[in-house]
Write a structure and sequence with these properties.
alpha/beta; Glutaredoxin; 5-stranded mixed β-sheet; 6 helices; 43% helix; globular
């Protein structure tokens, strides 16, 4: 998928990921009622750009069941330090602010969905 295709696809997304920063981290991540998939990305990371369509697809697909969020690690030093993210992309599966799974590097969408099935089984039991 080229950049033009990705941009076209992005305009079709119904529910984008929630944007997390240092000021809203506690509210959106630590106090979340839903399980959270947090994509920690970097502005100069080509793998992060490649992962973005997957994160947007997951946000749309699991709206209301999983809070899918994204955070620019460089712009959020406090939250990034708290999460101890050493490289990007890193995807964190979380419950009430606690990390239950840390996935480093780029993976296909099915990998993240399988991790959610294991770590968030209640989301998938009703389906």
């Amino acid at each position: 998928m080229g950049l033009k295709d990705w941009l076209k696809d992005m305009t079709r997304a119904k529910v984008p990921p929630v944007s997390v920063n240092d000021s809203n981290y506690a509210e959106l991540i630590e106090q979340a009622d839903l399980p959270v998939l947090l994509d920690v990305w970097g502005p100069n990371c080509s793998w992060c750009v490649k992962l973005a369509p997957t994160i947007h697809s997951l946000a749309d697909k699991y709206q209301g069941a999983v809070r899918v969020a994204e955070m620019n690690a460089a712009a959020c030093p406090k939250a990034n330090s708290k999460l101890r993210v050493m490289g990007t992309p890193t995807v964190l599966l979380m419950r009430k602010g606690r990390i239950v799974e840390r996935i480093a590097g780029f993976k296909p969408q099915a990998f993240y969905e399988q991790a959610m099935v294991v770590k968030f089984p209640e989301v998938f039991e009703a389906k």
